[in-house]
Amino acid sequence: MDEHIVILIIALVILVYGYISKALSRLNISGPMVFTGFGLLLSPFGFNITQVEVNAEFVTIIVEIALVLVLFSDAALLDLKLLKQSWKIPARLLFIGLPITILAGTYVATLIFPDEPMTYLILLALLLTPTDAALGKAVVTDPKVPKKIRSSINVESGLNDGIVFPIVLTVVAMIVSGLTETQDNGWMAYVVEQIVFGALVGGAIGYVGTKLTVLAVNKSWMESNYQNLIPIALAILSFYLSESLAGNGFIAAFFAGLYAGNTCEKTRQHIEDFAETEGELFVLVSFFLFGLAFVPMTLAHISVEVVLFAFLSLTVLRMLPVMISLIGAKLDLATMAFIAWFGPRGIASILYVLIVAHEMGSIQGFETIYAVVTVTVLMSIFAHGLTAQPLASLYAKRHRDNKIK
Q1: Do the beta carbons of residue 261 and residue 255 sit within 8 Å?
Q2: DSSP state, 159?
Q3: Cα→Cα distances 162→166, 271, 312, 387, Å
Q4: Where does the Cation/H+ exchanger transmembrane domain lie (predicted)?
């Protein structure tokens, strides 16, 4: 693989998309759709101009940084005061809907893939549980959609990645060690440790880092151009520091952004500017690499069963648990369905597959699992990309902030 050729191609794709991005948005064609499409076109699946190994180090780093920056910026743009007033929906989604989704996914997987070991099927359900608000960007950025609903979707997307990640690592460790079941509840303590330490480290870095930024600005110590760079440093610092202190880096990035964006209004504005430029770049490059590397790797292993499970994962296995979790939340059926549908699979699932592939050494024996994840993400990129703006507009016509209590 010539990484320089890949970088050159990425630059050209960015130029082409940049020139026509506004025109494409009118057709409900999103950035992830375009970049994934270009990746597929240039891969062995298309013109075979270049190829890249899915476990190449630079691929892992780019996708990892992209997820960290997305979590940080999404959290920073949340209104913490509003969240304190309307925490019940995200709590239902995370603590009722998420477990049901994992259990339902595992059970259906046993029916569709009866020959796969149970631990593999649990892993599959976990890999497809995290959602990616970036694929439904129009939903969480459209001011016509009630803030409470946008915030709930954003919080769920930001936190479920980190909550699921420790469990993914636990299952991977069980598979690698040859265990099929565990005799103690040590993994539960591990999950709690990852979440608690991640939240504490991330929150501290976000709060202190922002306070120092405000101090530096007030004292005229900082050039204004550097204010957009501070969020990048805080996001990456929170991730790696948390990982070194037994916490979860993705949880840390989310909480760092949450505190940074709600500690200073000017900082929130700088983070928003950063998210729309530098952060967006990493996200789009990740989807390009997905089309270039992931899809060709699993193409030979795609079957009717794989496509069926991918379809169910995006529909019934996502929507039914979410709607069950929202029973009693005083939401109408349209709102429940709206939240349930916008649970796209994207960067988190891609990154988790990379981590699993790294831990396992190869895809040998996991071809079906990887194929399902690839097809699900591919379907989600186009299904949620095409429906985000139309459904957001349709929903907003009938629902306003004063109607959503």
Answers
A1: no
A2: H
A3: 7, 21, 23, 27
A4: 14-392
Fold of 54-403: Na+/H+ antiporter like fold (1.20.1530)
Query: How many CB atoms are closer than 10 A to CB 75?
Result: 29
Contact 248, 197 (CB under 8 A): yes
Token readout for 190 is 């591990």
Quick check: 351 and 64 in contact, CB under 8 A? yes
**Is-contact 68 236, C-beta < 8 A?**
yes
Whether 250 and 65 have beta carbons less than 8 Å apart is answered as no
Burial per residue of 362-397, b for 16 or more beta-carbon CB atoms within 10 angstroms, e otherwise: ebeebebbbbbbbbbbbbbbbbbbebbbebbeebbe
Give the number of other CB atoms < 10 A from CB of residue 402: 7
Give the residue from 348, 323, 335, 370 showing the smallest Cα distance to 131. 348
Stretches where the chain sits below pLDDT 70 are 1-3, 51, 54-55, 82-83, 177-188, 358-359, 361-364, 400-405
CA dist., res. 283 & res. 400, Å (int): 30
Residue 109's pLDDT is: 96
Integer CA distances (angstroms), 227 to 223, 237, 267, in order: 7, 16, 8
Residue 266's alpha-carbon distances to 33, 76, 84, 342, in angstroms, are 32, 11, 21, 30
Question: Each residue of 64-115: pLDDT tens digit?
Answer: 888 888 888 878 877 777 667 778 899 999 999 999 999 999 999 999 999 9
The pLDDT value given to residue 183: 47
DSSP sequence for 349-400: HHHHHHHHHHHHSSSTT-HHHHHHHHHHHHHHHHHHHHHHHHHHHHHHHH--
Q: Quote the pLDDT of residue 400.
A: 67
Asked if residue 376 lies in contact with residue 76, where contact means CB atoms within 8 angstroms, the answer is no
| Residue showing tokens 């990887």 | 370
Distance CA 237, CA 248 (A): 13
Please report, as a single letter, which amino acid is at residue 188.
M
* Type of residue at 57: E
Q: Is residue 215 classed exposed, middle or buried when 0-12, 13-18 and 19+ CB atoms within 10 A define those classes?
A: exposed
Helix (H) or strand (E) holding 332: none
**Tokens for 316?**
């019934």
Query: Length of the chain, please?
Result: 405
